[in-house]
Amino acid sequence: MHRLRTCAARLRPLTACQMAQSPSQPRPAQAPLRTFPQPTRHYTAPVAAEPFLNGTSSNYVEEMYYSWLENPKSVHKSWDIFFRNANAGAPPGAAYQSPLPLGGDLRGPGLGQAVVGSQPSVEKLVEDHLAVQTLIRAYQVRGHHIAKLDPLGISCVNFDDAPVTVGFHQVGFYGLDEADLDKVFRLPTTTFIGGNESALPLREIIRRLEMAYCQHIGVEFMFINDIDQCQWIRQKFEKPGVMQFTLEEKRTLLARMVRSTRFEEFLQRKWSSEKRFGLEGCESLIPALKTIIDKSSENGVENVIMGMPHRGRLNVLANVIRKELEQIFCQFDSKLEAADEGSGDVKYHLGMYHRRINRVTDRNITLSLVANPSHLEAVDPVVQGKTKAEQFYCGDADGKRVMSILLHGDAAFAGQGIVYETFHLSDLPSYTTHGTVHVVVNNQIGFTTDPRMARSSPYPTDVARVVNAPIFHVNADDPEAVVYVCNVAAEWRATFHKDVVVDLVCYRRNGHNEMDEPMFTQPLMYKQIRKQKGVLQKYAEKLIAEGVVTRQEYEEEISKYDKICEEAYARSKDEKILHIKHWLDSPWPGFFTLDGQPKSMSCPSTGLNEEELENIGRVASSVPEEDFTIHGGLSRILKGRAAMIQSRMVDWALGEYMAFGSLLKEGIHVRLSGQDVERGTFSHRHHVLHDQNVDKRTCIPMNHLSSNQAPYTVCNSSLSEYGVLGFELGFAMASPNALVLWEAQFGDFHNMAQCIIDQFICPGQAKWVRQNGIVLLLPHGMEGMGPEHSSARPERFLQMCNDDPDVFPKITEDLPVRQLYDCNWIVVNCSTPANYFHVLRRQILLPFRKPLIIFTPKSLLRHPEAKSSFDEMLPGTHFQRMIPDDGSTCKNPGAVKRLIFCTGKVYYELVKERRSRGMEDTVAISRIEQLSPFPFDLVKAETDKFPQAEIAWCQEEHKNQGYYDYVKPRLRTTTDQARPIWYVGRDPAAAPATGNKKAHLVELQRLLDTAFKLDAFKDL
Ligand SMILES: Cc1ncc(C[n+]2csc(CCOP(=O)(O)OP(=O)(O)O)c2C)c(N)n1
Ligand SMILES: [Mg+2]
Prior knowledge:
By secondary structure, this protein is an alpha/beta fold.
């Protein structure tokens, strides 16, 4: 044993440091080879005498040596002899025996044969082995560059900067020559092309590598950092004979291709002038998706949530999700009226939910396709959020039962930043869905734009490399190759629970839509496309030639499906009315009545009993874990909370705590997500405590409320708004029984998520008849913090409210709830912690769900007056849509000269100013807490109460911003256009706020002066 180790030490150059140590130190049992010290120039005499042992060769030899130690037969005979000789003490330079020609007799010389060999040929032997290793690696790294991926053969992927030196004619690049092609080389452990053989002639090595990496599949994976994952992929593509299909599998594949192709042809025949964004040119998408679903179902997945753009969407609905064909066909009937409320959406945006038996696995599977707007890729994070929620509700912690599939277009995948944001959520603990299978319909064009104008990366899929997702490029005209990579992709997801991309390289047979003329802009491409035989025809001919099916069977398959379509078409004529409800992607069983209505039109009190408030308050001011050291500053905060609870008061953070805590105790999951939400941007929340002595030890007191409470999730998000808000919207979509909140760091950062707000949150119910109770917390307030840290842009949300400014509603008992039911979203700006508490609880206690936009105050988080008593939160209390002036103005309302309506934190500035001017009797200040839907009834009561008062709207925002434009016509309607509505606030401006502190204060004072100057509007 000792001799062997000595031999190992002699086989590589020693470092200077090693030379000072014993040369026979044993190799640490677990140490990976690559951690050995790098060779230096201080060679010892024995090494210098074996020149091939220098540099990188020595590593190679070393690997061989350790393999030999484990099993002498695992190395070539010549090496076996060399190691035996070296071990037996052969002098330097004499351990080698010249090997027999490798191309000939592989048995090599027997033991005990002469040990002296000629050094140059030994050197060549090692170099040649290294060269072969490098060549193998070149295929693995860059084989996809020369794979035949493009069905049109005109691929614009340009790898001129990275030429691939592989193939029989390139062996010279590696120092090999023609003569070496028939020599046998030992295969490294990083390839599986040998199958059961450990050595192969170079010619065969190249042939097998060409088969694995350069045909219709291009595997891009060598950037992955994980060795096991790389090995896994190599196995999947390199092992000889991996791509074998049974006759049955081939027939199923053909049948799926028939459905996919004939569906588009049917639509084309019936509605030749309708836009449908057909799949022609990428028909193999259908078997691709079905394969992913079948394989995943086999691996235990029961629920698949999908998101996709326009291209081929109807085909996916028909042939993957299996929506009834007549439901699809009747969408083409322009005469049908819509049965449901709402404005609806075009057919290629609608969603779908379907539970059925997977025929291949005979297991139940639920498939849903999430409705989406035209905005490409915007649905990606929404799908992820919904998937996460479904995993959460069924306790699927590893994503074994629920998964997502995202489809993309090539141009959108490369161009839309949301794709990158979504990828970056994929491995974050509170956002991971444990692997998404991405499928790109890479038709090598985006509307009229060529890829070389549409992206700077060679492939549209390069964005996926950031998360080490393997990318399988495949020629979509080879359905078997497509099905093979889809199987591997599904297995990858089931094995590693990480993202994977299938890039279906295809073409678009028609224009962008069926009405478009592609020859205007892509004449040569389309000349080629016109010549292109359809993939179904090609595949059918192949299978007929192979004898898998007869032509007659193939034709029967076609007529069978055509008949199905015709019959469904006939049935679709019987449809009298269009039901958008049939296209719902996320039903909420049991939440509504059977015909989809709310179970009531009332909302119970949102108050809590005293004991409950105390209990939650106690948890909010404690550290519920043993031996947990929190920061001194935080101790003081918790003590302050305890004192507040003692005196039956809450501040903003405690009001929120009470709302979350009580809902959790009632079994409602609460999820708060956004940047730095755990502590709170303004350091007021502290929902996650950090042990000051133990790294990463944290405690979430909110999860220590009671043994049967729902779990509380509070999670700092990645620095994304678009992606994260989309994700939370998707999470909220899955169930009505959760309070899902997204908080923007500063209010206006929601700009980055505008697409989610404009296209999903605002009109979601109107377009897709699905409700959503997501809550947006948007810090807002003019505090001299500059243009970007002041305004959450209330005007934008208010502009998108659907309540009519000119119609005074009929006042009924259920008006407050009915208004909420009729609106598209609720916009509030609470001025007290109690009202914040109530509005959060109301969100869940309502019998329906609406998005809730809350402008949250920054300065009120710690304002001494912005506190609420328990009395305002007890049973019987509720959210106050408007808080009337209840001060001395009430004693003699007739004497009140001015009634100022306002909202949010400016109230406290107005009250302070009124106090300092001693105008409590003459000026009333009322707070509109719920801006939309507008509390017409309460505002009317207030205006009626002060008949002599001038009515003013006061806001701290600039005149063209804030609430004025929304509030003014509604105040006018309330007063029957009889009383003017005066404006108090900042002048119109381009920026939301000044960056100059002094200017800010001057502006503030000016508006306060106007508010209390009773003759301010006299001459206007
Ligand atoms: C965010 C966004 N920008 C622009 C468009 C307009 N548009 C619709 S489809 C399309 C081309 C999409 O190309 P690609 O992603 O390759 O999908 P394909 O239509 O080729 O399947 C464009 C630019 C859009 N719908 N959404
Ligand atoms: Mg495209």
